[in-house]
Structures are given as C-alpha cells and as structure tokens.
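Reading a protein record of the kind used here takes only a little practice. Think of the row as the fold of the chain written in a discrete alphabet. A record is reproduced here so that you can trace the correspondence yourselves:
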Amino acid sequence: MVDSNFENFTVIGINHWDAPVDLREKFSLADEQKRSLLDGANREGISSIFVVSTCNRTEIYAQYTTPHELVRLLTTYSNGSLDEFHKYGFEYEGWRAVNHLFKVATGLDSQILGDLQIIKQVKEGYELSAELNMVDGPLHRLMQHVFRTHKRSRNETSLGNGAATVAYAAVKFANRTFENLLNKNILLVGTGKIGKVTCKNLVNLGASKLTLINRTRDRAEFVAGRYNLEVADMNQLSDQIADADLVIVATGATKPVITMDDMEASIENPKFKVMLDLSVPRNIDPEVGKLHFVDVANMDMLSDVTDEAYRKREKEVPLVKQIIEEELGQFGLWLREQRVVPTIKALIEKLDTIRDEELDFFRHKISSDDVDKVENLTRRIVNKIAAYSIEHLRDHHQSDEVTKVVEDMFKLKAGGLNE
C-alpha cells in the first residue's frame, strides 16, 4: 500500500451494511440540507469536504478535520441522533478512508454489486462542493483518480455488464413474486431517475398494463409517450392503487407519498398486492405494510445475489480491486512528489530574483535594441539551471536530505517539511 502521508483524509457515514432503512432515512440529506451542512462546515473552518447521500448511504468525506467534527455536522443537519450514529455508523481515516471512497465509486460497496448509479451520485456531491470552492488541490487530484478508476472498471472488466441498478433489482423482485408481469396491473409512482429506469425494465419484461403517476403530469406523459403507456393524476392515486397488483414508488419526496388515506379504496375492496418502496426516506407509510392483503418491500429487501448477472460481475471484483490498487499507487506517487513542490517553487523564485536584479544592474549598459535579446538569453539560462535541479528533486522526492541540500545551497525558505 502507499506509504505517503494522507492521514488527514476522513470519512464518516451510515449505510446499508449496518443500518436498516428506518435509520438511514433519518440521516438522509436533501439538497438543501447538503448545502446547509457545507455552509456550516465552512464556518467551522473545514475547507475541503463533500457529501454523498443516496438511498443506501449518507457519507461525508473531508480533509484536515476529525471524525468527531464530521459526526457532529451530520447529526446537526440531519434527523439522526448521536446515539444512533454511534450504534450504526462508521468512521475511517487515512488510507482506509481513501480506499473506501474508491470502493463506493466503483460499486464494490453497493447493495447492488457494480451499481451503475453510484458514480453519478459521487460526482454530484463532489461537483456541489467544487462549485462552493470547498475542494482543495489534493482532493481534486484524488477525485480524478477515483473517476478514472470507475471508467477503467467499466472498460477493462465486465463489472458494468448486466443491469446493475436498484431499479433492475426491484423489477426482478416483482417478477419472482408474480412469475410474470404480462397481465398484471402495475402502477409506477415517480418518473425521476430511478422511475424512468424502472419503467424501461418493466416494459422489457413484458409489462403492458402499466400506469404512471408523477406530481408533474407532463414528466409522466413524456416517459409514457416513449412506451405507449397510460398516465393518471395524483388525485386518482387511491383508485389506481386499488386496481393495481404491483405498485412501485420511486420519488425524491422527504415524506410518504402513499399514506393510509390513499389505501381507502383498497381497504373497501381488498385484493393481494405487492408494493415496492425504492425511496429513502421511505415514500410508503410503514402502516400500509400492516394491511393483511399488502406485501410492502423496501430497499433492504432488494438484492441481486441470486441473479446470473450478479455472479458474472462478482468474478470481476479481483480485477477491479487491482485497478484500485494501481490508481491508489499513482495518487500516492503524486502525493510524494508534492513534498518537493515548495522547494521547487522557492528555487524558481530565487533564480528569477537573481536574474531580475542582475538585469536591472546592467540595463543602463545595454542598448535598448538588445534588452529583449538579453532578457531572452538570461531566461533560457535560468530555466536550464532550474530544470536540472528540479529533475534531481523529483527523482529523489522521498529524500528529505536531498531537499535540504538544495535549500541550503540556494539559501531557500521553501516552507517545506524540514522547516
């Protein structure tokens, strides 16, 4: 493993491995909460930080701070408590935190192995912080390696083969329950990112009696138009649920979209139905699951481990881990080279200062026609002298002794490791 220092990198969070959905939804952060958390971090002097919050995890990655400070931020801006975090959460520091980030971004840490959506969610978290100038140079560089690792994992392995998404797992779950979906009445509530992919998967498995509902009707009509499906309004939700054999809910709402009030028509004329909640926080009121004719499944009940596509992806895991090791090695090399950057900058500044002073001294002795030529000549000489020293420093970037020799030789104050 890399022997360079990145011990100031920390991640804390709560995810599907240890926390059930009712706990994860407490720690889930909506976009406004993420911005508030980042603003709070900025006020506390945390300058390099980003947040990933999905249906299966809420995690905060940061530099130059402590796990304790990050946990306090998370519990301040979410609905989760400190006791709940200490029972279900995790804290990693240094290279363990870095490695965790790579595993998350490649989908190795996902409930659905090789999850195709997680990299988009990591990018969104990173880009929001970058937009707010809350990502520094080393973290920017780390993220470039993270994104390259994800790209390589898709191009150089078969990890991305098969439909590795929550939406796919949900449809497979429904298909196992009903054996086939050809003649089933299906209601899909929510036509956002997950909803659209779910709709496509349902159609591909032969579902034709499919109705879409979305708070914004034109978005539902846009998706329905691609597959010649029906659309209903939100005020028809109760009747549509009563008619459905399968109800799938996937919205970004922060509170239940389907409540007991929406089950009134179903209670009057009960028939067995399966309801899948693909949202965190949950969009189906847990009370609905207590109805004797309803089976409610949430994110914790979805898995693709029995799927042939999963087994094929699982065989690719060692290759993906090897790519992670390679990219970690490259990032570690870059980090080690940064040890000599302050000395290189100080050396260039020192040589430029000497050149400027000598030019000023001789400027009145040089004809105006020759000034540009002399400036060009001296710049070339300085650059060549600097180039040899810089090459030597980079070649010996692990040696504090070499760096000190250069600093002493040129009487530099580089602000490097030996000061």
Observations:
- The beta strands are 9-15, 49-53, 57-63, 90-93, 186-189, 210-213, 230-232, 246-249, 273-277, 294-297.
